[in-house]
Amino acid sequence: MFKRYELHNHTVESDANITCRELLDIMLADGVDCFAITDHNTTSGQPIIKKILAEEKPPIQCAYGMEYTTYFGHIVCPVLETYVPWDSINRKKPELLFEACKKANAITGVAHPFSYGDPFARGCRFEMEITDFTNVDYIEIVNNPEPLHEVNEPGILWWESLVLKGEKVAACAGMDLHGRDSMAMKFATYAEGKEGGDAVAELRAALAAGRTWVSKGMLVTGDIDGEVAVFHLCDVKKPGFIPSDTYTLTLRDKDSTTAYDITSGSVRVPLTEIDDIAVPKLYGGEVKLENLICVAPVIRL
Length: 301
What we know:
- The protein is α+β, with helices and mostly antiparallel strands and 301 residues long.
- It has two domains: 2-214, Metal-dependent hydrolases (TIM Barrel, Alpha-Beta Barrel), CATH 3.20.20; 216-300, Sandwich (Immunoglobulin-like), CATH 2.60.40.
- It has five helices and 18 strands.
- Strands 1, 2, 3, 9, 10, 13, 14, 16, 17 and 18 form a ten-stranded mixed beta sheet that branches.
- It starts with a strand and ends with a strand.
């Protein structure tokens, strides 16, 4: 089965206008399998949600984290249960903080890397210079409240350029909730898991394997059948998802992008047409950013 993750959310414990109780209720109402609390520079909301979950035992799991909010960019850690001081923050060497967080068993990600910075919101744009991605689990390639072309497109392209060069970094999405907002036709993060399984452990495994999907509600999966890759559509029944009349699969490698009609629900692609590393994406109809539905795990042959 596929589990839906909402990995970037805030409460009144930092700068949002929803309480921890309200955040939990929003996630429950939308059928989320696992959500994270990632308030800015504080873990104070974690025990509040832990207490509610322990007492009420609702059908949802929580990842307890935090978002480091610096003048040089935001580092979102959907899992960070032991506070890690960030006096090591260094614009030229952000690896120091990523490494410290990983030693504390955190999950680490770069939040909205191309968000508007000064003078609109100083520090939102990620201006740290990462040269070693060893301790970076993922890049938030879509931050749903941000402008599609101005912020999210360069985020997607940056991640693609990294993985096509061989970097092992996963892709995720974030609602970045600061209040009540519809999650219909917004991107969420999906990973494979088992019914009743530990969603946080399953997320760790998915990130380590590069097996996360960023999707509005339809996934594209693939398997190898001899000398052919077979791709399939999978509707994960995300509330508010509007199906398309036609679907197009694209495979982008370091040199080009090839498109395939997958409206029937599946398509077979000879392995000779796929480069050693390729990024699969799914569009509803014409191949343009506005029609993007899913960014699937990177293919490595």
